[in-house]
Amino acid sequence: MPYEIVSGLKPTLSLLKVFGAKAYLFNNLHKKDLGPRGIVGYHMGISPDSKGWVFWIPEKGNFFMKSASVKFDENTFYHVPKDQILSSIQVSDLMDSSMVKEIKMQDLLICSWNTQSNLCDVIPTSLKEVSLLPDKELWEKAINDEINSMVEEEVFELTDLSTALQTQKVSNILSSKWVFAKKTAPLCYKAHLVAWGFRQTRGINFEETIAPTLNFGALWLLISMAISNNWMIKTFDVKVAFLHSIINIPVFIWPPQGMAIDCGKVLKLKKALYGTKQAARCWWKHLTKILQDIRFQPNKEDLSTYTFNSNIGSVILWIHVDNGAITCSSNDLLLTICDHLNRALKIKWVEEINGLVGLEIAQRPKGLLIS
């Protein structure tokens, strides 16, 4: 091949895909909600500045997106019925060919990427991509907030690489990356430093990993009881949840991109960083202890649900990772419980249940519509 003759290198052909082919773009972030995990797009070419491809997203109009987490269907293409095409052509739309300038597809893509509304919908996959976005200041604030939270919660301590190598091999020291997400209701930019936990080895830098999983039955019960008895419901989001919980075995990570650390140093985790295999379990045990200290009891049949009973009233609390809901027969008792939790954790409270774990919940005259 000419490229190989000139450069002496074999070209990488894995990125070559059929132009215009249908593709499914997957959201590979660590999402907690149950929203769509992918979107349909059509292949427009190879991304010039990052790994992956460029796709046209029909359902979003004149919108182009870059992604590397993709499944191609190279036998399917975008189809517009012929009669629809013909009916859309107007004589006034026709122009003298001498007045038409040649426009390359790349120019069209660049024009679309530079549209502010489109770029503000992009979720970056690296610090480099953050620097190219019009809302980069909001992403940078999210990164700084996360770093400040890690310092405040004493998530890690600096240690010499030589010290880490006395107990673990170089291959056991984990890399990490920044993972970004954006909530829309309300608008919130998030950045999490995530360890490459898939490289952990049982018995060396992790042991048990079991933690409660999502149980909608318990959530339906909580909502039903609240509606039937006219109890107040609050939903909540625990900020930097995993960073509150102590890790139970030494884990070392390399300094992440964007964090200035002296040469020859690594980070020794003191708290359960996102991505580590034991993070969910460490957080669950930490939360359970906090709740038991204020007399909550875990449900034996469903460990994601906790109850509190006293002469003042009854409380039901349901949680999935760091999102949850709480209802109580007494508004005063509910406020007291919320105050106790605020002292132990950083919590954002919302007095509505729409948007909880990705659910759309609408109030209706005869109850709630959940979808």
UniProtKB/TrEMBL annotation:
Residues 172-368 form the Reverse transcriptase Ty1/copia-type domain. Residues 24-80 form the Retroviral polymerase SH3-like domain. Pfam families: RVT_2 (PF07727), SH3_retrovirus (PF25597). InterPro entries: RVT_2, SH3_retrovirus. This is Reverse transcriptase Ty1/copia-type domain-containing protein. The lineage of its organism: Eukaryota, Fungi, Dikarya, Basidiomycota, Pucciniomycotina.
